[in-house]
Amino acid sequence: xxxxxxxxxxxxxxxxxxxxxxxxxxxxxxxxxxxxxxxxxxxxxxxxxxxxxxxxxxxxxxxxxxxxxxxxxxxxxxxxxxxxxxxxxxxxxxxxxxxxxxxxxxxxxxxxxxxxxxxxxxxxxxxxxxxxxxxxxxxxxxxxxxxxxxxxxxxxxxxxxxxxxxxxxxxxxxxxxxxxxxxxxxxxxxxxxxxxxxxxxxxxxxxxxxxxxxxxxxxxxxxxxxxxxxxxxxxxxxxxxxxxxxxxxxxxxxxxxxxxxxxxxxxxxxxxxxxxxxxxxxxxxxxxxxxxxxxxxxxxxxxxxxxxxxxxxxxxxxxxxxxxxxxxxxxxxxxxxxxxxxxxxxxxxxxxxxxxxxxxxxxxxxxxxxxxxxxxxxxxxxxxxxxxxxxxxxxxxxxxxxxxxxxxxxxxxxxxxxxxxxxxxxxxxxxxxxxxxxxxxxxxx
Length: 445
Prior knowledge:
Potassium Channel Kv1.1, Chain A; BTB/POZ domain-containing protein At3g22104-like; 3-stranded mixed β-sheet; 3 strands; SKP1/BTB/POZ_sf; disordered C terminus; mainly alpha; ubl conjugation pathway; NPH3/RPT2-like
C-alpha cells in the first residue's frame, strides 16, 4: 500500500491542518493541478492559503467531506461555505459514484423555498461573509428573491422573536403620514432581523425589494431604520457611505411614502459629513419636492458655522425653488397654499433676526406667486417686525423695495389701518395704503 503523504495546510493564518494529500487531491481539481507540477518525492509538504473562503472553519468542513468519502450534511448554516469552498478548490470530481460537492450544494440551493425564516436569516449572515467568493450571481439573487418574497406575507409573525417583538414601536417615526393608517407590526417584524446586514449586502437586498415591487412605504421605513441602527457606531466615512446609499434609494421611491421627519434627520446628519454635492442635491430635492408636507419646526435649522444670521435661510430658499420648479405642471392649489402658510410662518420666525440681510427677507417674501396667498397680513406683520429691528440699518430705497412685495389688495382693513399709522414704513407705502383703504371704504358704502 502506498504510504500516506502528509500535507500541512495553513488556512489564512488562522489554523494549521495536517491532512492526507492523496485524499484531498482525489476530490479537488485545483490541488490536483497544483501538485502535478511538483517533481521529486517528499513525505511532507506545506500549503498556504491566504484567502480561503470561510477561513479555517470552512476548510475543516471540506476536510471532513473528503475523509468521509464525499459525504457531509449540508445545512443553511454551512451551505454557502461549502459551495464557495467547493468552487474555490474545483471539487467537481465524483467519488464512488456520489455527486461531487459542487453538485451537492447546487442541489441543496433548490430547497431554499422550503426553509424557515430563521434558516434564511442564518444563510444570509453566512452569505454576506462570503460575497466575494460566490461563483454565481444567480444563486445569490435566487436566495435574495426568496428572502424578500417572505416579507410580502405580512400576516406572519417573525420567528426571531427576540429581535422583532416591538418593532412597530421602534420605528414609527420613520413612517410617512400617508402610510401610518395602514402601518402595523405586521409590516415591520423583519426590520431588526436584517439589521446585521453590511452595506454591500444591504444594497443588494434593497435592490431586490425594489425589483420585487415591495411597498415603497415599507422600503423607505427600513432605509431610515438601517441608518438609525448603523450610524451611531460607524466612523464618519462609513456614515457618509451609508447615508449616500440611503439617499440614492430614497430618490427612486414615490416621495409621498417617504417620512419628511426622516429626511430632515438625514439632512441634519449631512451637515457634519463630507457628503458629495450630488447626494446633498438629491436630498434637498427629496425635501423640496414634498415641501407642502413640511412643518415649521423642520425648517428652523441654524445657519452654518461662521455665519451670523440665526437660521439657514439659503437652504429654505433652495427648497422653495425646488418645490416651484418641480411642481410647475402638476401643482395643486392646496399644496401651494400649504407652502405659502409655511413660508409665512417661517418669515415671522426669522424677521426679528438682526443679522438677516434685506435681500434674504425680500427673497423669502417674494418666492411664491401672488395666487399662493389669500391674505398678506402675516407678511405685513413680519415686515413690520423686520423694519423695526433694522430701523437704522435700512435705506429708504431698500424699504421701498421690500414694500413692493406687499399685495395691498390682500391686506385686511385692520392691517391697512395699522399701516396708515406705522412710521416704520416708507411714505410711498402709506400713500398706497390710503388709496387702497379709500377704495375699500367706497366699495362698502
